[in-house]
């Protein structure tokens, strides 16, 4: 009779809580799509859905206040980058093209090149004009200095100075003759020699002269040498005057030769004050180093810049075009895929010359910030953070609104070294940063600068509503993929199958995945199989085959796990009954694939003082969320059974044959059922697996991965043999998350497998035991023979035994309230 009553109760619960096959997977009737194939559907323009993200993009791209850069968050494959680029192209087209930027030599301070901004396209014009100027100046100056007019004027200056020198020399010679002395030019100056009878005398002859004569000669010598010293001073002044006048003549000739060239440049670039100032410096430098233009001789500058600049003798007169926007249309859009420090900020390069590494302003190279200046820069946050110093450099540039090109070696070199320090360039750029939601949260909480510099968040949702609008958008997206990649068009049944798969990827009957990259990949694979099988259009069977093949390529571990279960290495029972043991289902994620793996959860109880132990937690294989779930079980047991006495039990719970860390609370209802079975001594049906978390009131809550968990236990039951009584208990809150495989749905339709949905732990325990859970009566007791009644009786017996033991032992009966 007891067995019959149990069977009837179990049958009643199973029928009441069983889900209909139609509720296990949402389907789309292809006729609802309104087209025969995607050939009739216009390709998608823009993105699908995402109104919140698009509104944020509109706002973030329009506001010009400093610090309102954008962070675009969302899952990879959700179309973040393509959507951002579409919006940027639309905005950039209506914005003005930014200025060109050039670097020129700083003639006053060679190690600090000057930056000059120029109207779009004028930078390269200026560079070519300066190249032409250098060649023309060299040609015209040489021609001018080779002219007869220059020779004549130079000879006149030299002759005039020579005449004056000769006159002064004659005066000195005459003065010496009058004093009886002869003059002789030596390396050290002009020497005088006394004469006797018109001939120089020797030292001995001089000493032999009368003293009065010697004194006369000595005095005359002093006067002549004094006059000679004055003469030499005048000669030096004449030489300087000659040099000055020749230099003035050369500058006058050079200026006459180059003035038309300078005039042409000033007329051409006169609207650029910085260029006009630079041309003035060029003119001064040119006139001071005419030899370079006359004879082709190299000038000299202090190292390390001299050898580099003067390998080309006129390099310092040339122009380094850093940013050239002559072919740009609208504001620039730069996507930097390798945002290293130098790729972002620019760099000064070095080259080998005569055994040394040298550089000059021509080796200054632009970074992504320079190219994007006046427009938009798109970066992946993880890529920026992955390169040393790049993140700090980016923030520093945005904070200071300027770009400083500095080599990292300066900061870390123990000895200061000579290098270029280019003039910084003003920065006006809108940075769009792509980041995962987790990375965004980390940056927001850990980096104060991040909040100040990236104030606009555009968050892409991972899902779309299941609606006719998005069904059409899916079809338009397929149409675009087909046309862009030369694929086969899809018939409407194939599109419907794609949409259903989009819901399966989200495990939600009300949503579709917004990660269109996965859908795009599936479109390509289905087209491949259609071509292989000779189908003119991609059919639903081709989509199904593509899905199966993709899963097959990734499911090696799942297959191996099922083999271990089938051969008994991993013990999973799918028939019979056991006390204190129940089947749970966990999720294994291998990156591109996840699957449900059945596992045994067992519980043992004994007399104790209210301690519920998770073996995984004790050996530190339990994560904090799982540990929380175990503590919730303690709260449930105390509130349900221990209102009149302390909980007199000690229990252990574990996942059998589990050797990895256990995390999450999706097995807390499973653990509760095993614990109630151990306390009531009622066996649990091993043909049923359980998933779902439970709260302290016994309500069963939703969990993740429910579709894969059901399919995982189905695969095990199928391997052991389907009996018609097997199935999975899921939370009622998860019913809309079921998008089960067609095979599982058909097995349920045929009565070979079942899925039950429960709201409370009481409903679950009734399914597993075939006994009513039993409601609490007004006096606080439970019906006799019910699950709760049996548990309460067991605990009451434990309480009496514990009281007797403590009385015998003489120890106080403290209530151990530990988890």
Commentary on this structure:
The chain is α/β, with parallel strands linked by helices and 819 residues long. A hairpin with a 2-residue loop joins strand 5 and strand 6 (199-200). Helix 18 packs across helix 20. The chain is elongated and about 160 Å long. The protein starts with a helix and ends in a 10-residue tail after the last helix.
How many strand units?
Answer: 30
Q: What is the chains' assembly state?
A: single chain
CA-atom Rg in angstroms: 47 Å
Q: Termini, distance in Å? A: 40 Å
Spans of at least 5 consecutive residues whose pLDDT stays below 50 are 1-6, 297-311, 812-819
Judged by helices, strands and strand pairing, the structural class is alpha/beta
Anisotropy-based shape: elongated
Number of helices: 29
Can you give the mean pLDDT? 86
Proportion of beta-strand residues = 15-25%
Could you give a short account of the major beta sheet?
7 strands, mixed
């Amino acid at each position: 009779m007891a067995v019959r009553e149990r069977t009837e109760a179990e049958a009643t619960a199973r029928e009441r809580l069983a889900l209909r096959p139609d509720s296990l997977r949402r389907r789309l009737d292809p006729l609802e799509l309104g087209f025969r194939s995607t050939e009739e559907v216009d390709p998608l323009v823009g993105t699908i859905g995402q109104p919140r993200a698009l509104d944020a993009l509109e706002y973030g791209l329009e506001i010009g206040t400093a610090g309102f850069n954008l962070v675009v968050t969302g899952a990879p494959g959700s179309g973040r980058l393509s959507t951002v680029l579409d919006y940027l192209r639309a905005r950039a087209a209506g914005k003005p093209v930014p200025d060109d930027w050039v670097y020129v030599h700083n003639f006053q301070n060679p190690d600090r090149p000057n930056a000059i901004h120029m109207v779009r396209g004028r930078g390269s014009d200026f560079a070519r004009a300066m190249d032409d100027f250098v060649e023309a100046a060299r040609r015209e100056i040489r021609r001018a200095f080779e002219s007869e007019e220059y020779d004549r004027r130079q000879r006149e200056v030299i002759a005039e100075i020579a005449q004056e020198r000769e006159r002064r020399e004659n005066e000195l010679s005459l003065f010496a003759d009058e004093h009886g002395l002869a003059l002789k030019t030596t390396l050290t100056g002009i020497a005088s020699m006394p004469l006797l009878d018109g001939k120089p005398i020797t030292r001995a002859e001089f000493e032999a002269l009368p003293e009065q004569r010697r004194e006369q000669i000595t005095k005359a010598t002093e006067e002549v040498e004094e006059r000679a010293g004055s003469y030499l001073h005048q000669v030096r002044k004449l030489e300087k005057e000659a040099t000055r006048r020749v230099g003035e003549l050369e500058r006058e000739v050079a200026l006459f030769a180059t003035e038309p060239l300078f005039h042409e440049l000033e007329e051409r670039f006169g609207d650029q004050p910085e260029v006009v100032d630079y041309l003035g410096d060029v003119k001064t430098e040119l006139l001071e180093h005419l030899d370079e233009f006359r004879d082709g001789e190299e000038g000299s500058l202090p190292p390390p810049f001299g050898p580099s600049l003067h390998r080309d003798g006129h390099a310092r007169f040339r122009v380094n075009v850093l940013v050239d926007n002559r072919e740009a249309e609208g504001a620039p859009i730069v996507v930097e895929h390798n945002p290293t420090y130098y790729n972002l900020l620019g760099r000064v390069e070095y080259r080998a010359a005569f055994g040394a590494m040298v550089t000059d302003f021509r080796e200054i190279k632009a970074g992504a910030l320079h190219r994007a200046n006046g427009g938009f820069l798109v970066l992946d946050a993880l890529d920026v953070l992955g390169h040393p110093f790049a993140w700090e450099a980016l923030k520093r540039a945005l904070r200071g609104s300027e770009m400083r090109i500095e080599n990292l070696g300066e900061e870390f070199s123990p000895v200061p070294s000579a290098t270029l320090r280019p003039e910084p360039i003003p920065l006006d750029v809108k940075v769009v940063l792509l980041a995962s939601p987790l990375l965004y949260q980390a940056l927001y909480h850990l980096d104060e600068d991040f909040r100040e510099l990236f104030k606009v968040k555009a968050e892409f949702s991972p899902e779309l509503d299941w609606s006719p609008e998005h069904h059409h958008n899916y079809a338009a997206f397929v149409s675009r993929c087909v046309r862009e990649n030369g694929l086969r068009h899809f018939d409407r049944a194939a599109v419907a199958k794609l949409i259903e798969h989009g819901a399966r990827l989200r495990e939600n009957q009300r949503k579709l995945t917004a990660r269109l990259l996965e859908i795009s990949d599936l479109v390509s694979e289905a087209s491949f199989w259609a071509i292989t099988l000779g189908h003119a259009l991609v059919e639903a069977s081709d989509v199904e085959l593509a899905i199966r093949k993709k899963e097959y390529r990734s499911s090696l571990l799942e297959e191996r796990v099922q083999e271990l279960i089938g051969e008994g290495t991993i013990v999973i029972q799918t028939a019979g009954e056991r006390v204190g043991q129940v089947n749970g289902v966990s999720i294994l994620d291998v990156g591109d694939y996840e699957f449900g793996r059945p596992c045994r959860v067992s519980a043992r109880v004994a007399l104790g003082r209210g301690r519920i132990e998770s073996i995984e937690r004790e050996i530190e294989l339990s994560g904090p969320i799982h540990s929380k779930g175990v503590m919730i079980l303690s709260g449930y047991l105390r509130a349900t059974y221990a209102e009149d006495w302390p909980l007199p039990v000690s229990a252990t719970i574990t996942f059998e044959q589990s050797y990895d860390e256990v995390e999450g609370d999706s097995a807390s209802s499973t653990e509760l059922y095993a614990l109630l079975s151990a306390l009531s001594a009622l066996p649990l049906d091993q043909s049923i697996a359980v998933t779902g978390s439970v709260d302290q009131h016994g309500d069963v809550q939703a969990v993740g991965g429910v579709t894969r968990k059901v399919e995982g236990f189905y695969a095990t039951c199928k391997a052991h043999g389907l009996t018609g009584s097997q199935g999975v208990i899921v939370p009622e809150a998860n019913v809309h998350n079921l998008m089960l495989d067609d095979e599982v749905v058909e097995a349920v339709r045929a009565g070979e497998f079942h899925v039950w949905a429960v709201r409370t732990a009481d409903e679950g325990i009734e399914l597993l035991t075939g006994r009513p859970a039993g409601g609490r009566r007004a006096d606080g007791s439970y019906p006799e023979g019910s699950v709760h009644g049996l548990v309460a009786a067991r605990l009451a017996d434990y309480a009496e035994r514990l009281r007797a033991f403590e009385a015998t032992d003489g120890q106080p009966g403290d209530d151990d309230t530990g988890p």
